[in-house]
Amino acid sequence: MTHWLIEKIQGFQDRAFLAQNDTIFSYLELSHAIENQKKQFKDSGIQPADIVILNGDYTLTAIASLLALFELKAIVAPVAVDAENERQLRIEASKAQWEIHCEPDIRIEKLTSEKNSHNYIETLKDNNEGGLILFSSGSTGKPKAMIHSANRLLEPFKNKRPKKLSILIFLLFDHIGGINTLFNGLSSGSLIVVPQSRDPEVVAQSIQTHSVKLLPASPTFLNLFLMSGASENYDLSSVRYITYGTEPMPESLLNRIKNAFPNTALIQTFGTSETGISQTISRSSTSTLIKFDDPNTEFKIVDSELWLRSKSQILGYLNHDMSRFTKDGWFMTGDLIEPAHDAEGFFRIIGRKQEIINVGGEKVTPSEVESTLLLMPEIADCLVYGENNAITGQNVAAEIVLKEGHDPKTTKRRIKNHCRSKLSPYKVPARIHFKDITNFSNRYKKMRIKS
Question: What CATH architecture does domain 356-434 belong to?
Fold first, then answer.
């Protein structure tokens, strides 16, 4: 039986599907590619419940391969092009039987004939459905393999209405946010725009060329976007929505973004690899307060930590214990929450539990200090983290990127005075390091150092 998503894709055949480099592919071409690759994979011997590593990016071939494998009821583990160094670890973590390389041409490699007999694999096989494996970093350095039911993950998109929307896809092929954007676009018949790189100038050029209406990104990238001047050098008037997530948004940065995009709605999103992306409502484009508005998601706050339980959450981990899940299915996200204490149920995400700085028993959230620093016109970017201190346990440290023309020696005193005027003494950065660029990952998420 043809999956409902494939039927939707077939119904959008006259629409543009994918803009990549100078080429635009249609939904009809995607539909044909899915059928061709489904036959190729089946002829190669890929069977239901086989685990397949899928190396690729958002190309016609890779997207068609993902959907064809779902149709075959295989279990797909996408590996983005930037994760090549983790490829072997992911093969071992998932115990994959197959590996598919999508570019420049499809290459199918048999890894092992031994089937993974994990209970979660057997559950998907018994239910006659495909699966998706996503990876996150484990404390030992080995990736944790999280297994989703493809049907449960796709279910929230089933009733999406067709839209004439152009969406730039920013988060990567193996990231829950990127997969969510892809499924959102496919289920609504939207044009998915893939920039050649995630350089701000390249992204801006893609927005201008394809009249992008929806830009999903991280706060770190959005600040780099402002710093680059790309928002001033290109016509970005088509952008109607900017969605942001993956890390806390400093309020002062949010105001900067709103000033650069005055006619654009800024919407905070929330999700985890374990529970999927939940529907949320932002109080306004200049507020970091959000609330859940999702019939498929339950939430509660336990000791200031957000706990979630969703219909689209993972079956479990293939190679890790379920210690972050309670016996009754609640996932402890590790995100600390500050309720708005209003009747509407809004709250603010203030930071990750493990990133909180403990200064002599006083707790400091990096995002609060970063928001204060970004109020200064001299500062283009900053990153706040904890450094070890023999007396207080930790103190607050900050990496600062100054705007052009400002001298670190003379600015340092102003930074200290500014922070003292707005923050409690224990929150004021004790150490300031001036940098050309802050420390962020290749997925445009701040990496907070803890020494």
Answer: 2-Layer Sandwich (3.30)
Rounded to 5 degrees, φ, ψ at 258 are: -65, -35
Q: What class is the 159-352 domain?
A: alpha beta
Report yes or no: 15 and 31 within 8 Å, Cβ to Cβ.
Answer: no
Domain locations along the chain = 4-154, 159-352, 356-434
Could you report the per-residue pLDDT of 339-393, keeping only the tens digit for each?
988 778 899 999 999 999 999 999 999 999 999 999 999 999 999 999 999 898 9
Beta-carbon contacts of 15 under 8 Å, excluding residues fewer than 6 positions away, are 26, 27, 189, 191
Q: What percent of the chain has pLDDT over 70?
A: 97
pLDDT digits (tens, 9 = 90+) for 304-319: 999 999 999 999 999 9
pLDDT 10s digits, 25-65:
999 999 999 999 999 999 999 999 999 999 999 999 999 99
* C-alpha span between 443 and 80 (Å, rounded): 11
Of 182, 154, 158, the C-alpha closest to 168 is 182
The better pLDDT of the pair 114, 313 is held by: 313
Three-state SS sequence of 48-102: CCCEEEEEECCCHHHHHHHHHHHHCCCEEEEEEHHHHHHHHHHHHHHCCCEEEEC
Task: Please state the separation of Cα 442 from the chain's center in Å.
Answer: 12
DSSP letter at 325 equals B
Fold match flag (4-154 vs 159-352): yes
CATH: 3.40.50.40, 3.40.50.980, 2.60.120.260, 3.40.50.800. Which one for 4-154?
3.40.50.980
Judged by DSSP in three states, 385 sits in strand
Cα–Cα distance, 357 to 360 (Å, whole number): 10
Distance CA 449, CA 451 (A): 6
Task: Name 121's Cβ contacts closer than 8 Å, sequence gap at least 6.
Answer: 49, 51, 75, 115, 131, 147, 318
Non-local (6+) Cβ contacts of 293 within 8 A are: 279, 280, 281
Half-sphere exposure (Cβ direction) of 164: Cα atoms closer than 13 Å: 3
Q: In the chain, what is the straight-line distance between the N-terminal and C-terminal CA atoms, in Å? A: 55
Model-level pTM?
0.92
Res. 139: pLDDT tops 60: no
